[in-house]
Amino acid sequence: MALFDSHCHLQDERLASDIEGVMRRAEQAGVARLCCCGSSPTDWPEVEKVAFRFPIVLPAFGVHPWHLAERDPEWLETLRALLVAHPEAPVGEIGLDHAIAADRTEQVAAFRAQLELAAELKRPVSLHVRRAWDSVLGILREIPRLPPALLFHAYSGGAELLPQLLSLNGYVSFCGSITRSGNRRGRATALAIPTDRMLVESDAPDLAPVQVPPATPNEPSFLRHTVEALSQIRGLAFEETAALTWTNTCRALRVAP
Fold it and tell me: How far apart are CA 211 and CA 190, in angstroms?
């Protein structure tokens, strides 16, 4: 059964140094599509190269709140041109992170600019949100137009926020953290999410499932562990979870099944 990894970073040097092996193992594990998210203008060219080299990779481009210092004055126009050149590409990874020291005003400005660009170009968005839910939801309610879909990656916000996220055409993506028996919040969210809004991701090379040995970079091939955990929580067969998340990811990212 085919799996869709809705969020990974194949351009990261921990994976790029063995990209042929990473992709071979992914396909052997049943991962048939991947969305590779950029983090800053410095890695956008590498995302392009990976997507060109491996047709199953969908590129996404955005500036992550951790990498705001890597922008130049023309970054937003460069992003626009890149998205126009790749009409299938989502915007991402973007968002807000209030757990880091980066200036919050600067974070908000970059976040809003990218949301507005995504809405203008009718692109889905892959979102990073950490300790900033009130701010993110406030901005999403304020902007004149929303992007066509919001993918909340590596979701950690809790089940109580789901009604608000779903009303904004949000999708919730589960990663390797759902395999941790102590992750009660994640498991509660997995039980509460409607089956037509749940996604899975590796977030490779980070957030590995518990089955992965310590200090081993996470890979898309390990996505099966996340699907197995989500299946167990929901009481679904592995194949059913794979099919549901495949369909949902195609819908959210606006790609053909």
Answer: 19
With cut-offs at 50, 70 and 90, classify the pLDDT of residue 59.
Answer: very high
**In b/e form, how buried is each residue of 196-207, taking b as 16+ CB within 10 angstroms?**
ebbbbbbbbbeb
Is 162 in contact with 190 (CB distance < 8 Å)?
no
User: Does pLDDT of 55 surpass 90?
Assistant: yes
pLDDT of residue 101: 82
Residue 237 identity (one-letter amino acid)? A
**Residue range of the domain that includes 25:** 3-253
Q: How many separate domains does the chain show?
A: 1
Amino acid at 241: T
Check whether 31 has a pLDDT greater than 90.
Answer: yes
Which has the closest alpha carbon to 216: 25, 66, 40? 25
- Half-sphere exposure in the Cβ direction for 148 (13 Å, CA): 14
Which CATH number does the domain housing residue 226 bear?
3.20.20.140
